[in-house]
Amino acid sequence: MKSVTVGWFEIPVQDMDRAIQFYEEVFECKLSKQVMGDFQMAWFPWDESQGGAGGSLVYHKDFYHSSREAGPLVYFSCEDCAVKLEKVKEAGGEVMIPKRQISPEIGFMGVFFDTEGNRIALHSQK
Description:
alpha/beta; 4-stranded mixed beta sheet; 17% helix; globular
């Protein structure tokens, strides 16, 4: 069977600078902001050799809208969901689903709302 993988993701934001601050605090990284007229992006750091998909925060007043209930759910991999969910609270986000085990083989997950009203998930093996 052919494998289908995520190649890129975009997370809509309402306030780019606020969203950058939130994600930099939660994931302890630096995002690269790009302004192209009325369209803004902030790229997450990504190393193609480590696998996974690259992605970006995106802002355009007419084209992108955040949602707490609808749309795709992006899962970020991390070492421990509980640690990142605590950082979510510290950075101004809201935990929707605390860390819970999916199964012993699959690991753990948690879901939060970012500062822009997006529903985002986390996955960890421990």
